[in-house]
Write a structure and sequence with these properties.
The protein is α+β, with helices and mostly antiparallel strands. Strands 7, 8, 9, 10 and 11 form a five-stranded antiparallel sheet that branches. The longest helix is centred in the first third of the chain and has 17 residues.
């Protein structure tokens, strides 16, 4: 069953006929965010609703954040994989960089790709320049008053990865980039910077409103010559308006596997 869709804001609104598997292949390659609108022409309403439900129910165990990997072997429809390759080719011709490679917030990045971009950058924290990985994490940290910032405004304060506790209450803490650097380099998060590898430890968990998600990641670290694993849980929030509209930004990184919703 085919449905006609338009990828809003991507490649000038290229229109194509795509199978369900084609949409999945595009999404896995970082081109289709679950926030995109699907414009249905002749597909039954049941099929459209099924696509929309995937936004919150689909387990995203695999992270496909690059365009230069082999076609997905799990793809049941070779045409779907060909469709993803076709869009990658058009993007290259138009000089549009895959947002998953940019390592900065983009409305084109779904939340799992935003987390993957940060993790890949932190694993290579000094590539291509010193502290590049930390700069990437800072770019994804939710800015102070993000929805009311002016276009091109400077991000002087960002939300801390951890909450401040006073008694039984939690308070948000906003950090300068220097303070953020000190927090990420603290013993609590040092494993993220010294990791040898990483992988998702669990699927995305969505809140009821669909504008916040959490995902646990597992990193490998070597301690006294023995490889061990550490788990962290990323919290991400979708910004509703302003220059970061529809971008997924980090609102916290907790130690361990935390079920937030």
């Amino acid at each position: 069953m085919n449905t006609s869709l338009v990828l809003g804001g991507m490649l000038g609104g290229v229109k194509c006929q795509a199978s369900m598997c084609g949409v999945k292949a595009l999404r896995r390659r970082g081109y289709v965010s679950t926030s995109f609108r699907l414009f249905e022409s002749n597909a039954p309403a049941k099929l459209v609703r099924r696509l929309q439900r995937r936004k919150r129910n689909e387990a995203q165990h695999r992270i496909c954040a690059t365009m230069d990997q082999d076609p997905d072997p799990a793809c049941e429809d070779p045409g779907g994989c060909e469709l993803a390759e076709h869009f990658a080719k058009i993007a290259a011709e138009k000089g549009i960089e895959n947002p998953a490679k940019q390592h900065r917030p983009s409305a084109l990045l779904p939340p799992h790709a935003a987390i993957a971009g940060q993790m890949e950058a932190l694993l290579r924290i000094n590539y291509p320049e010193e502290n590049s990985g930390l700069v990437t994490a800072w770019k994804f940290a939710l800015p102070l008053d993000a929805e009311n910032m002016l276009q091109g405004g400077t991000n002087r304060f960002a939300l801390s990865w951890s909450n401040v506790m006073q008694g039984d209450r939690k308070f948000k803490m906003w950090l300068t980039m220097k303070e953020f650097d000190q927090q990420v380099n603290s013993p609590a998060y040092k494993a993220l910077l010294n990791a040898t590898d990483w992988q998702p430890a669990w699927e995305l968990i969505w809140n009821d409103a669909g504008d916040e998600v959490s995902q646990a990641v597992r990193v490998g670290v070597v301690v006294d010559g023995v490889k061990e694993s550490r788990t962290f849980t990323f919290l991400m929030k979708k910004v509703a308006k302003g220059p970061y509209k529809d971008c997924w930004m980090t609102t916290g990184v907790h130690i361990g596997h935390i079920d937030m919703f």
